[in-house]
Every structure is written in C-alpha cells, then in structure tokens.
C-alpha cells in the first residue's frame, strides 16, 4: 500500500503553462478536498506537507499541497509573483485533481491569497480556513514594531531602538520594510512555540533531519512581488465580511503568535463568529506543528459537521 501511495505522490507533479508546479495529494479523492496555501512570498509547503498533510488525510480528507510558481520547488525564472498568477495556478490545481469545490487553508501570507481567491471564485470554495493568516498587513507590521520597541526600551537597547526608527522611515509598500519587520519579530522569537512539547519537538526534529533539504526558498520572490503586484500592503477584512455570506469562514490562531496584537485577534474572531474561531494555547505561528492535534481536531469538527 505504501509503495502504491509513493508512486501516486511521485506522479502528482504537473505542468502549468509549460512550467513545473510542484504538488502532491494525500488520501482518497472521493473525500472532501482540502488545499493548503503556504506563506511567503518565498515560502513553500514542505513543513505542512511532511508533518501534517498525511495525518489530516487519515481523518477522511483529500489533502493537496503545492508550492506557488517561482517559490519552493516550483522553480520558474519567468514567474511574476502576482495574485493573478497565483489564481491562475490555483485554478490549474483544481483542474489537475478534478476538483469542483475545495476547503482552502491559507497560512500566513497564504491567507491573503486564499481570501482574494475565495472572493473571486466563491463557487469553487466550500470553506475558507484562516490559519495564522494575515488579514491586515499594516496592522501586523505596526504590532511587531510596537512590541519589539517595548522590549528594547525595557532592555535599554539603544542600538535596536535606533534600528526600529530606521525601519519606520522605509516605504511601507516595499519588500525591505516587510523583511525588516519580520526580521525583528524573528529575532525576538515571535514565531516560536513558548513551551515546546515532546510531540512538537519530534515533528521539527524529524523534519530537520530528513526533509529540510527540500526547504527551498527563493529570496528574490518578495522583491519581485513588490515590484509587480499593485496590492502590496493590504487588508482583507472587508473582503472577508463580504464573502462570509457566500461561503463558510473559519479561523484558527496561536495564542502566542506574537505578530498579531490582541485587537487583531478579537477582530478576526468577530468577523468569523465565535463558533468558527479557535485560539490555541501554547502555540505560535506554525500551529499545525506547535499543536498539531488541536489544529487537526478543529478542522475535523468544522468540516465534518
């Protein structure tokens, strides 16, 4: 059985517009489809693919992962890194796997892609799941800068305080501004699980030891995105309020995902409604690894109603 599954996975990489788009499917195609959209730009789906996709499929879903054009293993020197290109390739995913409707998980930046796609093609979306997803980029950047500023004031770190002031002078619609904000967040462990469990540590260790070489990141992707895409620094709260009348929207966030402020978490909870919202404790940005069981259980409870 494992040999058959491996053969199936090896055959799922497909070509779109003559270019190689890396994708894999897990589970029975007769089950409800779930498409995972990774973060970025410059991200990939490897962490979700090798830690969570198959376990989610075992719960009775047909799980599809892919790397966006020009990112991860979908190497393409002609990629434009625009939302329209993202939509085109996602539509090709539907065609490749003969899917009419799917539940879409948007993680981090992937939440923006998933939301805008859902607004444009609501007939193709059974439900939208926001997983640690961005929905107001500037509010997130503001929260990061405010939070790290408080840390450096408490530490009397004048060098870092000066660095924050320099970041604030940058063009908010630039790749450099985005990068500097997330660098500050990473330096202060905003993306790390506060109290790693044995399960989460094993997931990360196995990934690092066996799969990490596939963690390909195109560092030029954000630069090209900010060069070619007009929607550089957006919020999708209005979009979410609009489409929730057409499709189901769920949101799951890590309680200790420090790139989001409390007001942002409360706002997204209000938009999707309390029954469709989950805040997982001892959990940061990569919630499907930090608290995998809780993450999967939320999806099962929502999607198997």
Automatic annotation (TrEMBL):
What domain of life is recorded for the organism? Bacteria
Instruction: Write out the entry's keywords from A to Z.
Output: Hydrolase
Write down any Gene Ontology CC term: membrane
Q: Which GO terms describe its biological process?
A: proteolysis
Pfam families for this protein: Abhydrolase_1
One GO term in the molecular function aspect is: peptidase activity
- Key word Hydrolase present in the record? yes
Q: Quote the InterPro entries the UniProt record gives.
A: AB_hydrolase_1, AB_hydrolase_fold, AB_hydrolase_sf, Peptidase_S33
What SUPFAM superfamilies does the database record attribute to this sequence?
alpha/beta-Hydrolases
User: What are the residue boundaries of the AB hydrolase-1 domain, all occurrences included?
Assistant: 33-290
Q: Which family does it belong to?
A: Belongs to the peptidase S33 family.
Name of the featured protein: Proline iminopeptidase
Give the originating organism. Flavobacterium aquicola
């Amino acid at each position: 059985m494992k040999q058959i599954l491996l053969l199936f996975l090896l055959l799922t990489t497909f070509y779109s517009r003559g270019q190689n788009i890396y994708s894999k499917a897990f589970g029975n195609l007769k089950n409800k489809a779930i498409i995972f959209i990774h973060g970025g730009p410059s991200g990939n789906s490897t962490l979700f693919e090798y830690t969570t996709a198959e376990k989610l499929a075992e719960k009775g879903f047909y799980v599809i992962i892919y790397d966006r054009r020009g990112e991860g293993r979908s190497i393409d020197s002609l990629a434009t890194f625009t939302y329209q290109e993202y939509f085109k390739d996602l539509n090709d995913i539907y065609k490749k796997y003969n899917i009419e409707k799917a539940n879409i998980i948007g993680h981090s930046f992937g939440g923006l892609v998933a939301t805008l796609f859902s607004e444009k093609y609501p007939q193709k979306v059974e439900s939208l799941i926001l997983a640690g997803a961005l929905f107001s980029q500037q509010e997130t950047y503001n929260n990061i800068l405010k939070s790290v500023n408080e840390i450096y004031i408490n530490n009397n770190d004048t060098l870092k305080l000066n660095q924050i002031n320099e970041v604030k002078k940058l063009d908010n619609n630039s790749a450099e501004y985005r990068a500097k904000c997330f660098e500050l967040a990473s330096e202060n462990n905003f993306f790390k699980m506060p109290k790693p469990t044995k399960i989460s540590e094993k997931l990360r260790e196995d990934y690092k030891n066996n799969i990490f070489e596939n963690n390909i990141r195109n560092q030029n992707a954000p630069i090209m995105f900010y060069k070619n895409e007009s929607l550089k620094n957006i919020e999708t709260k209005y979009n979410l309020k609009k489409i929730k009348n057409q499709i189901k929207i769920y949101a799951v966030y890590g309680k200790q995902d420090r790139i989001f402020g409390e007001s942002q978490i409360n706002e997204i909870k209000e938009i999707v409604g309390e029954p469709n919202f989950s805040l997982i404790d001892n959990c940061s940005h990569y919630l499907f690894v930090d608290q995998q069981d809780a993450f999967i259980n939320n999806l099962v409870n929502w999607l198997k109603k």
